Amino acid sequence: MGAYLCIASNGVPPSVSKRIMLIVHFPPMVWIQNQLVGAMEGQQMTLECHSEAYPKSINYWTGEKGEIIAHGAKYEPVLLDNAYKVHMKLTIHSVSPSDFGSYKCVSKNSLGDTDGTIKLYRKYFIFCRIFIRNTIIRILEE
C-alpha cells in the first residue's frame, strides 16, 4: 500500500507523470510472539498481540468463556494503531487464580475475522531454608 509515481516518456518532450495511490483490501491477520506466558499471583502481566487489516479492523480481547474484556480496575486493554496495523495489549493488574487460562485477541473487518490465543499459566516460587552453622540462607527460585 502506498503512493506510486508513474512516468511516461517516449523520447519526445515533455514526459508525463501521474501519482497513483495503491490500496490493498485484505482480511485481518494476527501475530502473537508469546503464546504461552507465565505469571505469579499478585504480579502485573501484559499480554500482547499484533494485527493487520484493511479496511480498518475492530479489535478486542476475550476471556476464557468468550466474554469481551472491558477496561476496569482489573483489566486494561490498550490498542495502538498505525494505518492498517494494530498493536493490542491487555494488562492484568495483580494476577489472581481466576486469571489463569486462555485469552483471545480478536480482529474483524468487512472481509473477515480472526483471532489468536494466549495461555496464561501459574508460575510458582520455590522457597527453601538452609541452616548452616547458625546461619539461615533463603533461596527463592522461579
From TrEMBL:
The keyword Oxidoreductase does not apply. Keywords: Disulfide bond, Immunoglobulin domain, Repeat. Pfam families: Ig_3. The keyword Repeat applies. GO terms for cellular component: neuron projection. Residues 27-119 form the Ig-like domain. SUPFAM superfamilies: Immunoglobulin. InterPro entries: Ig-like_dom, Ig-like_dom_sf, Ig-like_fold, Ig_sub, Neural/epithelial_adhesion. PANTHER family: CTX-RELATED TYPE I TRANSMEMBRANE PROTEIN (PTHR12231), DPR-INTERACTING PROTEIN THETA (PTHR12231:SF272). This is Ig-like domain-containing protein. It comes from Rhynocoris fuscipes.
